């Protein structure tokens, strides 16, 4: 018999699937590549497989000059976003890259796109951006690309609320604070005004979580750990803003202000790195497919797998698929292959039992680095090395 909770779960899954399969969900990566690169130890021999998300972290890893980075995503829009970033590098004008992805806006974006960028894109990406390039044209109500896509829409709602409450200047003071002590001062001034009924309501909606790219199973994981999603988000935000330096926390800055700053942005956007990345972007290859399908069709020996938190999407609900994924990963690895992932769960207990026989986990390193994570919304980070 199908229970009511099963029906609700199915509806949540359908809502999530329709959000992530038809829309740009992630307009910026939400995992900290500074820690990743310490764990991955990439070099010029590296042959990397990773999930695309917004493509920022693939470009970050490229600074270590790996041979290939295969970016795989089931959502084609995520790959088109990375293709657009690659095309801006190939075009060779740093200030245009900064306008699009540093400022998140370019007046006359359509014209620049047609003239300079479109010819550098693969056909499918051209078709997508022909009807979406206006994401970069600023308007008074939607001033930035970082307020587009489903996660951007949630960020915009929060920012509008902050502005309506007259708290925007306080937020800027917080972002410009020079010490964690000063940050904490501004944060605790704002916090009581932040968590009103509206924000509690917004955060507890399934629709909000789907738009942020958090499926029902992952949400359940968080709820079990934290006595509700609201407590989790509240504690994560408090920790990030009061205990970690905010001056280089570009993850939160971009959603609060709509843009990065030259001294607070992903590495791929810094002017000094442009000359290193421009000749290397062709080493990034995008693939629209599930990870399993990609490995079935591109068998090879890969040196690194970066799985982000996507296993949470399967851990409880689809253990067979999780196991199948790991069989493919192990079949396409060799001793020394590094596998990195994060989770909303405090441990990696969800892994199929056979995985631990083939992999040694570097818990000392990953748990030392995990608290420095500038995103701050994951419960654990794991680095495995194939034996
Ligand atoms: C797992 S999500 C999480 C976002 C992430 N934490 C970040 O850094 O932004 C990242 C991407 O993985 C894709 N994805 C999820 N499961 C996948 C799978 N089995 N195969 C390929 N892509 C997948 C999603 O479409 C999404 O764009």
CATH architecture of the largest domain: 3-Layer(aba) Sandwich
Determine Rg (CA atoms, Å): 20 Å
Classification by helices and strands: alpha/beta
- The best one-word shape is globular
Outline the biggest β-sheet.
7 strands, mixed
Q: Report the strand count.
A: 7
Q: From the 3D structure, determine the CATH topology of the largest domain.
A: Rossmann fold
Organism: Fodinibius salsisoli
Pfam family, one: DUF3419
InterPro entries: DUF3419 (IPR021829)
Protein name: BtaA family protein
Could you characterize the architecture of this molecule?
52% of the residues lie in helices and 9% in strands. The termini are far apart. The mean pLDDT is 91. It is an alpha/beta fold and 387 residues long. It has 20 helices and seven strands. Helix 18 links the parallel strand 4 (304-306) and strand 5 (338-343). Helix 4 (76-91) crosses helix 7. The longest helix is centred in the first third of the chain and has 19 residues, at 4-22. It has helices spanning 4-22, 33-40, 56-61, 76-91, 94-103, 109-117, 123-130, 149-164, 168-175, 180-194, 197-204, 206-211, 216-226, 229-243, 250-257, 271-277, 291-297, 319-331, 353-358, 363-369; strands at residues 47-51, 68-73, 284-288, 304-306, 338-343, 359-361, 380-386. It has two domains: 4-93 and 270-386, Vaccinia Virus protein VP39 (Rossmann fold); 145-257, no CATH class. The protein has a seven-stranded mixed beta sheet. S-adenosylmethionine is lined by residues 20, 25-26, 29-31, 51-53, 72-75, 78, 213, 290-291, 308-310, 313.
